[in-house]
Amino acid sequence: MTKIWGGVLTLTGFIACPCHLPLTLPLILGVLGGTGIGAFLSENQGLVYGVATGYFIVGIGVGVLLLQRKRTGRLPLGRNKNNELSTNRIKVN
Predict the structure, then answer these.
(1) Whether pTM exceeds 0.85
(2) Left, alpha or beta for 77 (phi > 0: left; psi -120 to 50: alpha)?
């Protein structure tokens, strides 16, 4: 399951890449033209670029981390099955 989410985050991160926005933003605005969302996006293009850049960085980073992570059977947030804090760390090769 983590491989699927890693792939989804990596793919959507590449789609949200700020270098693609000069091509994709007018298409999105054309589809959403005449709606409240389209009006908001067209008036706040700087915000759209900022959010897309942030999602690009986080999506690619977390996606690659999930794709490289091995299945260990450990619970997230560093806790073991007895709900005690674990000192085990995620190994990244």
Answers:
(1) no
(2) left
